[in-house]
Design brief:
single chain, alpha+beta, 3 domains, 6-stranded antiparallel sheet, 4-stranded antiparallel sheet, 22% strand, Rhs_assc_core, T6SS_VgrG/RHS
Length: 222
């Protein structure tokens, strides 16, 4: 046999070649180099020289579950400068994974700005509920004091300006922002002046950031 390769994704079984090249009969196989698989958690590549996982700006130590350098964006990424997804890489992912954001869309007709929140590409904003998923379209009387509803905004994320919601506990904030949209946590009405898309998103984010720090301090003191 001139060529043989028993497939293995992790490189335990190596390709074999004939001693005299392609098309030549050989008495036994000759092993080539093992396949290397250097990918680690999302955004990371294994660095053979250091034995660590490299993620563009810093190195991650899988033995401790922490980065060995501080977060280059400082406190904007949370209070823990060395943590990776709250120490839970089996359920969460790192760069641009489960991350809460507040976004501003310039306007549906370049004259009507809209604010909404996202968690892991799950995006929604507060609208008058009579629109049944359609975007804001008036008339003005219908949005002065009407029932409200969260509507999917994933179609406008690419045209919006988004910033990460940073606090003391990233995982807590992510879930808190999602909870703002459910049950008794959301406003009962939509009002253009005090319960609109901007005020609703800002109040949600402020509450989640403050409570994440309270929870972090309380867990530390217990």
């Amino acid at each position: 046999m001139a060529w043989q390769w028993l497939i293995s994704g992790f490189g335990e079984v190596r390709p074999t070649t004939g001693d005299r090249g392609y098309g030549q009969t050989v008495s036994g196989p000759r092993y080539a180099e093992a396949v290397k698989f250097d990918l680690r958690y999302p955004g990371q590549v294994f660095d053979e020289e250091t034995g660590l996982s490299y993620s563009l700006h810093r190195y991650y130590d899988a033995a401790t579950g922490r980065y060995i350098q501080a977060d280059p964006i400082g406190l904007e990424g949370g209070w823990n400068w060395f943590g990776y997804v709250g120490g839970n890489p089996l359920n969460f992912i790192g760069p641009k994974g489960l991350e809460a954001q507040i976004c501003t869309y310039p306007g549906f007709n370049n004259d009507w700005p809209h604010v909404f929140t996202c968690v892991n590409a799950n995006c929604a904003g507060w609208y008058p509920s009579g629109y049944s998923g359609a975007k804001l379209k008036g008339p003005w009387a219908a949005i002065m004091n009407s029932n409200g509803a969260y509507v999917d905004d994933s179609d406008i994320v690419d045209k919006s300006y988004c910033g990460k919601v940073a606090g003391c506990d990233e995982i807590y904030i992510d879930q808190c922002v999602l909870d703002c949209r459910s049950g008794g946590n959301k406003p009962s009405k939509y009002n253009l002046f005090n319960e609109n898309c901007m005020s609703t998103a800002q109040q949600c984010v402020q509450k989640c950031v403050v409570n994440s720090c309270k929870a972090k301090i309380w867990n530390f003191l217990r």
